[in-house]
Amino acid sequence: MNVLITGGTGSLGSRLVVPLVRRGDKVAIFDIASRPHFKSSEFGEVELILGDLADRGAVLEAVRSHKTESIFHLGAMLSSAAEENPYDAWRANMDGMVNVLEAARDGGARRVLFSSTLATYGDHVVAPLTDDAPQWPVSLYGVTKVAGERLGVYYHHRFGLDFRGIRLPAVIAARGSGGGASAYCSAVFEQSVFKGGYDFYVRPATRAPMLYIADAIRGLLNLHDAPTESLTRRVYNIFGMSPSAEELAKIIQEHIPKVRFTYTPDPLRTAIVESWPHQLDDSAARRDWNWKAAWDLKRMAGEIIEVLQHEHAG
């Protein structure tokens, strides 16, 4: 299958390359950045297309030139950066979304898998949060993702595009921190190993819904590959864990006893993180395409720290 990944040099997109290439898909990545966040030998078989999601012609040309059959639309400006640059975020996330959907329709791609977010819900939600709970986001990132979901579902009903969306929690990985409000969830591991400590920009009790990168990739692939007849909806929640900042610190101290942590909460980023739901009902994903998180906090922390310590020693 010919697959195009937007945001393909990002943390999630660059890691998604590996299983796609290994199973025999022909992969192209479309991104404004040329350097992959994560790189392995599989990148020797991948076409890199430099371009801006807000450039409709560039997106359409990428879809057509690659003879794209499926698009994993992962490209977006994340939450913290979006709050600082709202106009640029709108261009990347909203103009980019319609450009991808139009390119799929005009360029012959049959399926679009969209990475949405739990930030679409906002605060004042009731746990456990269901797929159809009201979506009132408090961040511009969440606003653009809600609109992207609705636009994708519209293209499904209006044009028959096989649109599928997955609402991801904060995705955690070694060297996975980016521009989102949840960046601390990965950065705390990196700085604990490389600098011996970390200053949290959230409160000790602040919780964030999280998912290990391996589970996130598996979720994307499983939803993409699920038979159409098994799906009862177009957008699904998935969930992993929801530790507090203090619980993250404690699990890291089990592996690195001398590590030190401080807390200097940033009001804007703390408010964004604390607006997110902490418990989700992902029973629809479990029922329709056999979703189940395989990584808990202890297993995830051990894996990330081992990878980073190996890198540090090398």
Q: What would your notes on this structure say?
A:
It is a single chain. By secondary structure, this protein is of the alpha/beta class. The protein is 44% helix and 16% strand. The protein has a seven-stranded parallel β-sheet with strand order 3-2-1-4-5-6-10, sandwiched between helices. A two-stranded parallel ribbon has the order 7-9. β1, α1 (11-22) and β2 (26-31) form a beta-alpha-beta unit. α4 (86-107) packs parallel to α5, α6 runs parallel beside α8 and α8 packs across α11. The longest helix has 22 residues, at 86-107.
List the helices and strands and how they pair.
Blueprint: E1 2-6, H1 11-22, E2 26-31, E3 47-50, H2 56-65, E4 70-73, H3 79-84, H4 86-107, E5 111-117, H5 140-159, E6 162-168, E7 170-172, H6 184-195, E8 197-200, E9 210-212, H7 213-225, E10 235-237, H8 245-255, E11 260-263, H9 267-274, H10 283-289, H11 297-313
Helix pairs in contact: 2-4, 4-5, 6-8, 6-11, 8-11
Compact summary:
This protein has helices at 11-22, 56-65, 79-84, 86-107, 140-159, 184-195, 213-225, 245-255, 267-274, 283-289, 297-313, and strands at residues 2-6, 26-31, 47-50, 70-73, 111-117, 162-168, 170-172, 197-200, 210-212, 235-237, 260-263. By secondary structure, it is an alpha/beta fold.
Rg, nearest Å: 19 Å
Mean pLDDT: 94
Q: What are the low-pLDDT stretches, counting only 5+ consecutive residues below 50?
A: none
Regarding quaternary structure, what we see is: single chain
Strand-residue fraction? 15-25%
* Helical proportion, percent range: 40-55%
Q: Describe the largest sheet.
A: 7 strands, parallel
Strand order of the largest sheet: 3-2-1-4-5-6-10
The CA-CA distance between the termini, in Å, is 37 Å
Structural class: alpha/beta
Say how many strands there are.
11
Order of helices and strands: EHEEHEHHEHEEHEEHEHEHHH
Q: Which overall shape is indicated by the principal axes computed on the Cα atoms?
A: globular
Helix tally equals: 11
